[in-house]
Design a protein that fits this description.
With about 950 residues, the protein is mainly α. Among the domains are: about 140 residues, Arc Repressor Mutant, subunit A (Orthogonal Bundle); about 70 residues, Alpha Horseshoe (Serine Threonine Protein Phosphatase 5, Tetratricopeptide repeat); about 130 residues, P-loop containing nucleotide triphosphate hydrolases (Rossmann fold); about 80 residues; about 100 residues, Alpha Horseshoe (Serine Threonine Protein Phosphatase 5, Tetratricopeptide repeat). It is about 60% helix and about 5% strand. It is built from 47 helices and 13 strands. The strands form four sheets. The chain has a five-stranded parallel beta sheet, sandwiched between helices. The longest helix has 28 residues.
Length: about 950
């Protein structure tokens, strides 16, 4: 069935035939339900919206009569009943109001606008309930129109398109986005004066009607219009468009207005020359702008002749420029630093109205020099540059995720991006991506006519490398062993380099210095690695340094410095991973890193490295037995192995012994007893945490003592400064408090847990959502889950996503939106069972069964309840078992068997140790009113 409300209401049956709805009240009822498709609209809301002025004598009966008639027209299943009201039970895509909104949100403007047949909700446009929806739809329509115009402008600003945008801007005069697009279209047609006139009209209109200035989009269009091509005689014409760098251009132009010597520094291929030319175009210099290209000048004695040639004079440059308000652009100064510095200082001293703009891979070092370092392009700008250059060789090229990956792999270095785009003449983007492992070889074909030093990526780097002294070349090569950068101490320890040498490479734009770390761009790193002569010795020092770092960090991950060392190890992950490629030391490094993976809940990462460590067996170091046992236990645990680990003292060994089989109460209790008997405060707190888990999750009826253990654990970890395990203890306590109905206490515990960790894991956000849902704040619950989903998608964590989808399904069900709940259930159920715990699988099946019960599919709901109970029983998790039994009790109520439901609630109470009074009241009470 299709419902079309974007225009006069029209309903089409499954076979495409038109459905006759009859009178206006039925049409109004359908439209009101269609606005909230899949969501329950309360009886009170429907009565108020359908009869805003004078309600019938018995409004509930009148509404039920309308619902019955509408069901006869559409089919009984189309309108669902709920204790509080009714809902339209159709997938949102079958209602054009929602299909339109989704198409706009997903960037399909043409498809969205094709659904727009006329004035939406035409049958009820004058009613109160329609007003907010109409305003939202009109905003969506204008957004879709603007998105469609952007697509059209990208294909070319035809005269017809300009006329259309003019008409739209006139019809919607306060829509700044349309005025901005009109200006862009006019500029694209070469009508810059008309674009400026359009801006003035829009500016005056906004000031008159709203008392407001133009917003960012219109201001940007105005700025672009002001930058009409006006080539200055002393500067070369550009053959390609200037893409990105708008902020850098503004900063450089501002610097030139305030200082007389400005130097743009950056690595080779960063776009220094192009940026300087654009800034020179914008800098007021009524007496002239001159470019001096110093790249072909071999030595200082060729400097003055090159400047004279650029100025077109035989006079001394200082005499020629003495009385002029001018700008001199000295390009590619890095190989003539002493000569250029002297020349610039002399000219600026003798020519008071002269400004000098220089580009160099290294500062000139002149008094008064203002530096403007130029970094590689950020992601979006690099993609825009690649797209622009790609379309020159492959018309119609459309960027996608592969484009983003290419630009990221090339560090956003403009020259590399342009050379890669040119390769699309003969390669597809996918082929290009696969060959980026050898980027220097891949990008070895440059542009004919370009300066020799810029024709290939290797030539750019050769130019910089040749300017280094032998010690700097050695250091640069040795820096290539670091992955993801390094601290100064690591650089000194591994490479033998000094601070002065490192600083020199930073000045020469070969090393990037950020946040007390030093790194090479990947392109530079690949090049430097080809010059590494003592590779084995340097890599051995790298491995030794990072093994020592991990071993130093390991005990500090359980104390007050925890956050510092978690961040430090996260920052050094790439270096630590690289160090583990050394077969001789990988078992030792694996053992040192394991606690970090455990506290970060990165078990998949731990298992990945466990596999790698076991692949190195037999171990070269006979003392690596612990690493072997830990790795084996993570992948294929046996009772004997876990007992052996449980008898050890190392925290990582005890944690693996417990985590690998958390249902073994005897082992868990033995470890907990040994820890709580310790004199060490951290170990005692860990013992209480394990006792709480053993009591609550495995024993029957142990909720109260378990809560006491979690409280003791929390206090112990609070005292020792282990914030992560403190948060874990509070989280477990929150679950127990929620189970006994103490929602406020549970939220207080969870809030404290969240305050102690910088990144809130998905499991805590799911718990927060459940607590908000229990408190009746479903919108807040939904926001918590959507926030967690974004994080899980970013982290590529399928189990976390399944937990979130399960939670979103529960929130949708509680909101009465069972259609949406089903979609989330289907996503959750797609998780690989091998990734999930039996507790989660039990809860997932139980949650799905509850939604099926609400939908009336009791047979399928019964099947999933049975599956949930079977999994919960197998998990030996008391609270999980109790939760699924409570869901099964609701299913028995739906079947009319309250006695069986009460029996299940009694079983759940014995398992958990506390009752669920709200559910028991619903089971023993009567159903709510208004089922229609």
């Amino acid at each position: 069935m299709r419902i079309r409300a974007l225009g006069e209401l029209e309903v089409r049956g499954p076979d495409g035939t038109r459905v006759d709805l009859g009178g206006p009240m039925l049409r109004a009822l359908l439209l009101r339900l269609a606005v909230d498709t899949g969501r329950v609209v309360t009886t009170d809301r429907l009565v108020a919206d359908l009869w805003p002025h004078t309600a019938p004598a018995d409004p509930t009966a009148a509404l039920q009569s309308l619902v019955a008639r509408l069901r006869r027209a559409l089919g009984r299943d189309a309108i669902g009943s709920h204790p509080t009201g009714y809902r339209l039970d159709l997938p949102p895509e079958q209602v054009d109001l929602h299909a339109f909104a989704r198409a706009v949100a997903e960037g399909r403007p043409r498809e969205a606008l094709a659904l727009w047949r006329g004035a939406p909700l035409a049958d009820v446009a004058d009613t109160g309930f329609a007003q907010a929806t109409l305003a939202r739809l009109e905003e969506l329509r204008l957004s879709a129109v603007e998105a469609r115009l952007d697509l059209d402008l990208a294909a070319g600003a035809t005269p017809e398109l300009v006329a259309e945008i003019e008409e739209l801007a006139t019809a919607t005069p306060l829509r700044e986005g349309l005025h901005a697009r009109l200006m862009r279209a006019l500029c694209a047609r070469g009508r810059h004066a008309d674009a400026l006139a359009a801006h003035e009209r829009a500016r005056a209109l906004l000031a008159d009607q709203l008392g407001a200035d133009p917003g960012p989009e219109l201001r940007e269009a105005h700025r672009q219009a002001l930058r009409a091509p006006t080539r200055r005689p002393g500067l070369p014409a550009r053959l390609t468009s200037f893409v990105g760098r708008e902020h850098e251009l503004d900063e450089l132009t501002r610097a030139l207005a305030e200082a007389r010597l400005v130097t743009v520094t950056g690595p080779g291929g960063a776009g220094k020359t192009r940026l300087a030319l654009e800034a020179a175009d914008r800098t007021p210099a009524p007496d002239g702008v001159w470019l001096v290209d110093l790249a072909p000048v071999p030595a200082d004695d060729g400097l003055l002749p090159a400047v004279r040639a650029a100025l077109g004079t035989t006079d001394r440059p200082a005499d020629f420029l003495a009385g002029r308000t001018a700008l001199l652009l000295l390009d590619n100064c890095e190989h003539l630093l002493d000569g250029v510095a002297g020349l610039a200082a002399d000219l600026l001293a003798r020519c008071p109205r002269l400004r000098v703009l220089a580009t160099s891979r290294e500062p000139l070092g002149v008094t008064g020099e203002v530096l403007r370092p130029l970094d590689p392009l950020p992601g979006a700008q690099a993609v825009a540059l690649f797209t622009d250059r790609a379309r020159a060789v492959r018309p119609g090229f459309t960027p996608d995720e592969t484009t983003t990956a290419i630009c990221r792999a090339l560090d956003g270095l403009p020259l590399a991006v342009e050379l890669a785009a040119a390769r699309l003449r003969s390669l597809t983007p996918a082929q290009l991506t696969h060959r980026l492992g050898d980027r220097l070889g891949l990008l070895d074909r440059g542009v004919r006519g370009a300066p020799a030093r810029h024709r290939t990526l290797r030539a750019v780097l050769d130019w910089s490398h040749d300017l280094l002294d032998p010690a700097e070349r050695t250091l640069l090569a040795r820096l290539s062993v670091f992955a993801g950068g390094a601290t100064l101490r690591a650089v000194e320890d591994v490479t033998g380099g000094t601070l002065d040498q490192v600083a020199s490479l930073v000045d020469k734009s070969l090393v990037v210095a950020t946040d007390e770390r030093y790194r090479l761009l990947e392109t530079v790193r690949e090049y430097a690695a080809t010059h590494l002569e003592d590779a084995d010795r340097v890599r051995a020092r790298h491995t030794a340094h990072y093994t020592a770092l991990a071993e130093h960090a390991e005990p500090r991950l359980r104390g007050p410095e925890q956050a510092v060392w978690v961040d430090r190890l996260a920052t050094e992950q790439a270096n630590l991973d690289q160090a583990m490629s050394d077969r001789a030391t990988s078992p030792r490094l694996f053992t040192a890193r394991l606690w970090y993976w455990l506290v970060r809940t990165e078990l998949a990462e731990a298992r990945r490295w466990a596999t790698a460590v076991l692949a190195a067996d037999p171990f070269p170091d006979p003392t690596a037995d612990l690493a072997h046992d830990l790795a084996t236990a993570l992948l294929a645990p046996t009772p004997d192995l876990l007992d052996r680990l449980a008898a050890r003292e190392e925290p990582a060994a005890l944690a693996v012994a417990v985590l690998a089989d958390h249902t073994n109460r005897a082992r868990l209790t033995a470890v907990a007893d040994r820890l709580t008997a310790s004199t060490d405060p951290w170990r005692r707190a860990a013992g209480h945490l394990l006792r709480g888990y053993a009591t609550a999750e495995i024993a029957t009826g142990g909720a109260a003592p378990a809560e006491e253990h979690y409280t003791a654990a929390a206090q112990g970890f609070r005292d020792t400064g282990d914030h992560l395990l403190l948060a874990c203890s509070l989280m477990f306590r929150s679950v127990l408090q929620a189970d006994r109905g103490a929602t406020a206490e549970a939220m207080e515990s969870l809030s404290e847990a969240m305050r102690h960790i910088s990144t809130v894991p998905a499991v805590m956000l799911v718990q927060a959502a459940r607590l908000h849902a229990r408190a009746g704040d479903l919108d807040h619950a939904r926001r918590e889950l959507e926030r967690a989903e974004r994080d899980a998608v970013h982290d590529d964590d399928p189990l976390a996503l399944a937990r979130l989808h399960n939670g979103l399904a529960e929130i949708a069900r509680l909101s009465g939106d069972t259609a949406t709940a089903l979609r989330w259930h289907h996503k959750a159920m797609a998780v690989d069972p091998a990734l999930a715990t039996t507790q989660f699988l039990a809860g997932m099946h139980g949650n799905y069964a509850r939604t099926l019960t609400e939908l009336g599919d009791l047979d399928l709901a019964g099947h999933h309840h049975e599956r949930a109970v079977e999994l919960a029983r197998r998990s030996q998790d008391g609270p999980a078992h109790a939760a699924v039994l409570e869901g099964q009790a609701e299913w028995h109520v739906a079947r009319g068997d309250r006695a069986a439901a009460l029996d299940l609630l009694d079983q759940a109470r014995r398992l958990r140790g506390t009752d669920n009074p709200g559910l028991r009241a619903r089971v023993t009470g009567t159903s709510g009113p208004g089922t229609g």
